[in-house]
Amino acid sequence: MSQPLLFEEFSDLDGVIPWISLVNTPTPVKNLEKLENHLKTGTSIWIKQDNLTSATYGGNKVRKLEFLIADALEKEKETIATLGGIGTNHGLATAIFAKEKGLNVVLYLINQPLSKHVLDNLKLDFYYGAELKYVKNYLGVGLNFYFLDRLKRKRVYWLPAGGSTPIGILGYVNAVLELKQQIEEGKLPEPEQIYVAAGTTGTMAGIELGVQLTNLQTQVIGIRVTDKMAATGRKVKSLIKGALKILQKDSKLRKFQYKPKFKLIDHFFGGKYGRVTPEGLEAVEIVKKTEGVMLETTYTGKTLAALLAYVEEAKTNAPILFWNTYNSVDLSSVADQVNYQQLPSEFYHLFEDKVE
Ligand SMILES: Cc1ncc(COP(=O)(O)O)c(C=O)c1O
Fold first, then answer.
1. Whole-angstrom distance, CA of residue 159 vs CA of residue 146
2. Protein residue closest via CA to atom 16 of ligand 1
3. In this structure, which topology does domain 61-165 adopt according to CATH?
4. Is the N or C terminus of the chain more exposed, i.e. has fewer CB atoms within 10 Å?
5. Domain spans, the chain
6. Which residue's CA lies nearest to atom 3 of ligand 1?
7. For the segment 108-161, what is each residue's pLDDT rounded down to a tens digit?
8. Would you give the distance in Å from CA 191 to the centre of its chain?
9. Ligand 1 midpoint to CA 353 (Å)
10. Hey, which of 27, 124, 172, 200 would you mutate to test ligand 1's pocket, going by the most ligand atoms within 8 Å of its Cβ?
11. Phi/psi at 190 (5° precision)
């Protein structure tokens, strides 16, 4: 098992920060030449393919879980409890990888717009052995996840939505060290901007911190895809501050000062988490048609839509990087093996209602 680049670069952290290997590194980078030709703006557009983080289940969550699961194991927890929408990718990734490492998983799930993908993820949560708690809304989360169950459940690692904690975002600090290495190897030019989806903002926070620690001149552009409450600039800065506290155990980083440079863009959200927007849908279709890249409409479609709008407007030649955070391992045939009536009965109506 090779070491993460984070421990190579900041060697005092080796053995101090718990880590397990889950990600197939480095994830490939690629020039989206056919998309460029289609747009005819002269912009150089690149993709970082974190859809390929793991052959079991890809996407951005796997990078965070390398540090989070290791932390839970180090703290001798037996269970990871976390939360998200009914179709949470983070919840599913946690179920798959934490179970693999011998931990129980409890998912607290709230309503979101339904689609086949959302319902498939719910079935997969069950398939991979997670205990499912249908708390429906933020009130249910507050009551059960943040209050009542903490009194009842023991040896639990309480993991906030999206795995976005200072420890979790180290996965993306590490990912930028990987990107920097790819730039140095000539695999892509240093991007002027990185576009990334901002759900609970952990991914963008890790990238923002990583960019500054590696002295890249890149600006990180986060596209807000969740309620304002969940994705604020303040939250990004607070995650970075927490992560730095951990990283400053390395002597090279004691004097490091973080200066915010990121931008968080609001207007591709569409007013509701999971709502399909025309620009998001168009972006998904363009990149599928030109490059065969499969995105979805909740996170990555909205993010690419923002990138395309910028490219159209700015007509810049500078390289821009799209960070693909969406899993591309198709687990729908596994989901098909699950009959929804195997799930707790409170979930049945979701499968019996009309799906978008
Ligand atoms: C596909 C995808 N992209 C991006 C994100 C957002 O990442 P973060 O919550 O770290 O902002 C998520 C979160 O669930 C996701 O599933």
1. 10
2. 89
3. Rossmann fold (3.40.50)
4. N
5. 5-59+167-324, 61-165
6. 325
7. 999 998 999 999 999 999 999 999 999 999 899 999 999 999 999 999 999 999
8. 20
9. 26
10. 200
11. -65, 120
